[in-house]
Design brief:
Two copies of one chain form a homodimer. With 453 residues, chain A is α/β, with parallel strands linked by helices. Chain A is built from eleven helices and 26 strands. Chain A is globular, with a radius of gyration of 23 Å.
Amino acid sequence: MKKLYSDIVVIGGGPGGAICSVTAKMTYPHKEVMNIREFEHQMVPCAIPYIFSDVLGSVEKNLISCGMADKIGMKTLVGRVESVDLEKKCIYLADKEVSFDKLVFATGSTTFVHSSLKPSLKYDGVFTVPKNVEYIRGMSEYIKDKKKVVVVGTGFIGIEMAMELNSGDREVTVVGSREYILSNSFDEEIAQEAHKEMLASGVKYIANDRVVGIKDNNGVVDRVELKSGIELEAEVVILATGYKANSQLAEGLGLEFGHYGGIVVDEYMRTSNPDVLAVGDCAMKRGFILKSEIKTMLASTASSEGRIAGMNIYGIQNLRNFSGTIAIFSTMVGDVAFSSAGVTEAMAKIENGATVSAIFEGSNRHPSSMPDAQRQVIKLIATQNTGQIIGGQIIGGKETGEMINMVGMMIENSMSIYDAMTMQVSTQPHLTSAPPAYPIVMCATMIASKLRS
Amino acid sequence: MKKLYSDIVVIGGGPGGAICSVTAKMTYPHKEVMNIREFEHQMVPCAIPYIFSDVLGSVEKNLISCGMADKIGMKTLVGRVESVDLEKKCIYLADKEVSFDKLVFATGSTTFVHSSLKPSLKYDGVFTVPKNVEYIRGMSEYIKDKKKVVVVGTGFIGIEMAMELNSGDREVTVVGSREYILSNSFDEEIAQEAHKEMLASGVKYIANDRVVGIKDNNGVVDRVELKSGIELEAEVVILATGYKANSQLAEGLGLEFGHYGGIVVDEYMRTSNPDVLAVGDCAMKRGFILKSEIKTMLASTASSEGRIAGMNIYGIQNLRNFSGTIAIFSTMVGDVAFSSAGVTEAMAKIENGATVSAIFEGSNRHPSSMPDAQRQVIKLIATQNTGQIIGGQIIGGKETGEMINMVGMMIENSMSIYDAMTMQVSTQPHLTSAPPAYPIVMCATMIASKLRS
């Protein structure tokens, strides 16, 4: 048993773990920092669907290696941590032990499948979408010549998988429990548009239904049975029914866990043990209105948490100015981008928020006769009375991904529609809407009118 | 003489005037608002260069009409204001007079040409780039079959004109007084890249030189003589040497003017006369470090000022939270977008600012093997000691136009690199960089390292 020591040990090589290690080493250059990861190469998690289409076309095109590690003097160890002893302050791999001063769990998440469907995972052709290189490689090979695909789940990964697999004479059907896809992240009027784009691409959708059985033929998946009585022939079934915190390694150590399995942390990602932190999907998340537990799992959230943990691990030196997880996401459905930040209006109502919203529709270029101009729609959600911005949803071109980050920044910095109304923006014919019709400003102005009347 | 009255009269139909009128009407629905404009149709000012190439191809494709005016009950009058009497609170057109309670000057800017070159404007083939539909239409017709074009000036309009005119067998040469183009808006290392893009497209550049003479042949332009002794054959000369405040109408009324001719206004766009405001290019601008006078003239700035004037014209009800003009611009040079917000490092040094900066280089997609991935470079400039963000410059794809608005928002809200380091962002393979390598965050992190060491 080889014995090692590092001041800071971070378990997990995903975005949260990687960025936490890098930030810690940059913040505390005299401390030793070790990142322990199971695989030499990591995939970009949110690009997994694109492996299945021409966009990337192979697992190899989706691999990243943390090139920064060596440059800044951080250590990387490839291996699987088998157990943790917090009293001895030591972690154990098959052939090594590493003692530490500070430990960070960044063990990510694993796929979630409802217990009633778990037995079907043993059939050939039934898959989840885990962040595992070998699994995804095999899955991609298996699906290549299959024609009938059923995707269960209407979140980002499910819809992106459906869209990417929808090529040639392959028939892709999505089964969902809601009227429209992506309904957890978008209000109905926006989700409806994503829905329309998906149907236009030829992907089929069965709404308000749920899978009650997955049947095989000699161990090979054959069909999917729905609650409505519908039966779908299937050569491939993809269960994109969510992820759960991968926090098993942290069990039995006296730490606390949330309802969804995440390790409970404070705003600086510290657990109840002063020398142990947790970041990313394995850590519990709180929404920012009621501060109640939410299930958001995003690489970008993990990155932000990794940074906060890394820079404050030996004493708080950069105050966090926002409490809660904003949940900013983007996706493309066909050629149209859909983004969301903060809470949807539907979610705000559930959380008892009194809100007012407006939708502005314009163009992402000016004049709108510019080449590659696309319709741009923005919805902003603000608190009644104070006009504080708490959510935003955008439909548009590829600029949407950065525009939503601006909305996220407004939410995170407690900005109001009145701040938005006077903001100075850059506009350029090829790049943005027209200056007098800049959509964030227009939408804020519409909300201000509503608040006055 | 027809006599009219309107509570609020706004002179000028450009972005500042239009948005001021709309905002005033929306804020004070019971007040009458009249917008007086010289032309029925306005051009999008920053899209003028694209009229000269296939991008738009005609003046008609660049016309906008203020469709919102009728809908909200605002009045529009097409005509030229000939004089103003502030004692009688009345303005005069050829056949009408309009008395008012509040008056807003939004008379924009006109082209600036050095006095030594003014005589050459009478030659056929010598042009400026005014915001005048008929002029631009004629100019576009004239240039169509001409092969030798000389552009004088290296600002956005000059470079965009040069790039758009550079097609087929036309030869375009730019003459500038600096080593690289766009050097007022970008620090050298960024300007250099825009420069390289322009040269790669085939446009020629003559650096560190200046025009001393423009010669004709029977009233038709023939050649341009430079200080260095170089002579350039020219069928067309475009003097893109800047704009000046069009504030003549406001002269002799007891108002104050800045060094560059702009009407002096306070933070709420009010002149020294309590009932008179000015917005946009005709109003004086101040930078936000030393609050000294600057020359920035942008439609987006005019829009922001129009909104501030419109909503506060009958008493301040939305406090302006930022003093000064940020100057956010973007442009495309070839397929690469260049954006700038706030001050350049060079300008900060001139204004006596102690700064620290960093440059981060990454990709605008992740993994960078995604289709249409482009190199993304960001430079952030922060104050020494406090790390407050005071400037940013970005090179990248079309997302750059919205990313720079995020940087602008950080500047306007006095955010620091420490705020940037913990910000939550959305990332998506088709739309943004990778979550752990989000460039604004990375650049802020690099500055933080420098400040620590």
